[in-house]
């Protein structure tokens, strides 16, 4: 049973708990929610998986807003989470905290177990205890593994992950289903497809390629650049999440559970992506061709019909425009002429 004070979730400044708020997507979502008048409670452990300065710069922007409350900590700490839930009277949880990166998971699987499994279980336990109105959580397109059926549909089989990262994200979906079934917690999973844009993660291709090209260093191009990715611009991702928050949560009386693909629905070959980046930078890349890496898939392609039908929105920022916006931000952030 939901709390009685949740008769209308979107009147006044309701409280949203955003985990991973200093991360790429968490930062953008928190900023959007603050702009829309929500109160945002954010948590992040500020780890050194990538440049901490970038994380602190994101947080410093959010800290300028009076409706933003930041806690430095980890979701693996159940005692801390319980304290946050008890003190802030949270309405909605958006769980974006996770150990990311397919290749990193090959060398450090323990980090994924702690953050993506133990941490997510703690989130579920607190949502159950405090009767949260809606839990939205990040999954990943990686759960589709080497699925050959194109485009990827939410109804496809996803029981053959080819990386530890993907396995933990699929486990999140199954854990959420169990809690939705047992305790009637409304949960919505987001299978995110190659998100990019300003303030992005430095370990992802667009960021690493840009940095290398500008500094006259070679870029590593796997599988001769023949892989395809459904590149999804950050603003389209945030708009999708925001609309999912505004609509009613899943209401199936047996299992109030839903999963959506969040993608652009237009995969591009990596070689073409690099050509667009070269054009935006006005500079050619030095390419070092390498074989496909363990855990990588040949193509990702999101079927977004379910998302379009439910939120009346279609991701619309082209990769050409998205790369241009990223380069503008990159030059400004790093003070390049």
Distance, first to last CA? 57 Å
Helix coverage percent: 40-55%
Q: Can you summarize the main beta sheet?
A: 7 strands, parallel
User: Any idea what the radius of gyration is?
Assistant: 19 Å
Global geometry: globular
- The secondary-structure element order is EHEHEHEHHEHEEHEEEHEEHEHH
Task: Tell me what the CATH architecture of the domain at 15-193 and 232-265 and 302-316 is.
Answer: 3-Layer(aba) Sandwich
CATH fold field value of the domain at 15-193 and 232-265 and 302-316: Rossmann fold
CATH class of the domain at 15-193 and 232-265 and 302-316: Alpha Beta
Q: Which blocks of ≥5 consecutive residues have pLDDT under 50?
A: 1-11
Structural class by sheet pairing and helices: alpha/beta
**What would you give as the CATH superfamily of the domain at 15-193 and 232-265 and 302-316?**
NAD(P)-binding Rossmann-like Domain
Provide the residue-averaged pLDDT: 92
* Percent of residues in beta strands: 15-25%
Counting DSSP E segments of at least 2 residues, the number of strands comes to 13
| DSSP helical segment count | 11
Major sheet strand order: 3-2-1-4-5-6-11
Strands, helices and their partners?
Elements: E1 15-19, H1 24-35, E2 39-44, H2 52-62, E3 68-72, H3 78-88, E4 92-95, H4 104-107, H5 109-129, E5 134-138, H6 164-183, E6 187-192, E7 195-196, H7 205-214, E8 218-222, E9 228-229, E10 232-233, H8 234-246, E11 257-262, E12 268-269, H9 270-281, E13 286-290, H10 305-311, H11 319-333
Parallel strand pairs: 1-2, 1-4, 2-3, 4-5, 5-6, 6-11, 7-10, 8-13
Antiparallel strand pairs: 9-12
Protein name: NAD-dependent epimerase
Keywords: NAD
Pfam families: Epimerase (PF01370)
């Amino acid at each position: 049973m939901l709390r009685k004070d949740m008769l209308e979730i979107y009147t006044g400044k309701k409280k949203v708990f955003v985990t991973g708020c200093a991360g790429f997507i968490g930062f953008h979502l928190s900023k959007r929610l603050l702009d829309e008048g929500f109160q945002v409670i954010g948590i992040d452990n500020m780890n050194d998986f990538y440049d901490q300065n970038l994380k602190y710069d994101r947080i410093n922007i959010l800290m300028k807003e009076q409706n933003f409350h930041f806690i430095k900590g980890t979701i693996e700490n159940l005692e801390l989470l319980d304290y946050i839930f008890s003190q802030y009277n949270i309405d909605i949880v958006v769980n974006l905290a996770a150990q990311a990166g397919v290749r990193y998971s090959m060398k450090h699987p323990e980090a994924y177990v702690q953050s993506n499994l133990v941490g997510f279980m703690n989130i579920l336990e607190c949502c159950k205890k405090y009767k949260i109105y809606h839990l939205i959580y990040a999954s990943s397109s990686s759960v589709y593994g080497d699925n050959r059926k194109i485009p990827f549909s939410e109804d496809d089989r996803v029981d053959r992950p080819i990386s530890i990262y993907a396995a933990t994200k699929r486990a999140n979906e199954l854990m959420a289903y169990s809690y939705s079934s047992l305790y009637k917690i409304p949960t919505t999973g987001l299978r995110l497809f190659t998100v990019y844009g300003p303030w992005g993660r430095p370990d992802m291709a667009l960021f690493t390629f840009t940095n290398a090209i500008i500094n006259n260093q070679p870029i590593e191009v796997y599988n001769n650049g023949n892989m395809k990715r459904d590149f999804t611009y950050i603003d389209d991702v945030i708009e999708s999440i925001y609309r999912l928050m505004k609509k009613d949560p899943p209401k199936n009386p047996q299992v109030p559970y839903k999963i959506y693909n969040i993608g652009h629905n237009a995969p591009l070959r990596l070689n073409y992506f690099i050509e667009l980046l070269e054009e935006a930078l006005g500079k050619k890349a030095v390419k070092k061709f390498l074989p496909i890496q363990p855990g990588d898939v040949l193509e990702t392609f999101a079927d977004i019909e379910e998302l379009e039908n439910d939120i009346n929105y279609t991701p619309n920022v082209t990769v050409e425009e998205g790369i241009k916006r990223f380069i503008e931000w990159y030059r400004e952030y790093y003070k390049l002429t």
